[in-house]
């Protein structure tokens, strides 16, 4: 049990702390030189939406306002929305907007497969219905490509109200840090679903039950031998979910998708993939199995409590989880907690959701359907 305890604890600490520290000390971020284009390639912005009547009009208007010198069209579809999303997207008369109102909710990836099959553009920019681009975002993404680059991820800034205690924004800054350094190593994993571009010819249609589409789309491009870059100059913004409770369901669903993605990307585990494989193991695989490691650490520690140091470690774990659950209850009820408690609560909630996602994955979850996550700007 002693060996199991320390191996599990080391892997967990390595993934969250040692690996980022290694990147910070030994890797220099890569400055991407934007290409000077004599002819700008054609671009289609792809948007799949479900029950997004509160933001979809602004999203399309923002896409149309992009300062891009080449041909730019917006392919947008409502995936069986129960609100007015379909009516809103089909009301646009601008010829650059090509809208489809699908009657059935089939799931995001089915909509993406359909929209992309209708695209003739050289490049695709994929984004979310609640995202807002800076006016030069598309231009920067496209000018980041060269012959060896197959996908470019932009930077997402998560915005929050002053009273929002969801720590997703802080965690996302941590993720952005990793993306920036992994890009320099050639080990960038997936893309930021709110803002990324790909060469259309490299798109491989995905299974209809795919959940983490942004990750799988870009992993397929990497598998074809192309580079994937992260350019923080291409900026988008989104609102954070107003509470841990609102975010929890989305994280369970993403957890299911993570384990599905793990099974279809076993090729990336090979040590012969070099830095890419190291980044994949360190950043993704160990994180996806963090709930399992946390449970193993707790149970193996229980068998070691006859020793005073391990008794203290066990008590420390119980206190950690107790603080997390306490913080979750307070936050969900709208009460204010201090920063440390909020961070512990977020970490615990994130991994509980991931653990639930794992069990649903084992049960054979097949649906690609999706549910809209509430946002702080929604009408209550």
UniProtKB/TrEMBL annotation:
CDD domains: CESA_like_1. It comes from the Bacteria. InterPro entries: Glyco_trans_2-like, Nucleotide-diphossugar_trans. The chain crosses the membrane at residues 6-27, 310-327, 339-359. Residues 45-177 form the Glycosyltransferase 2-like domain. The keyword Transmembrane applies. Keywords: Glycosyltransferase, Membrane, Transferase, Transmembrane, Transmembrane helix. Belongs to the glycosyltransferase 2 family. This is Glycosyltransferase 2-like domain-containing protein.
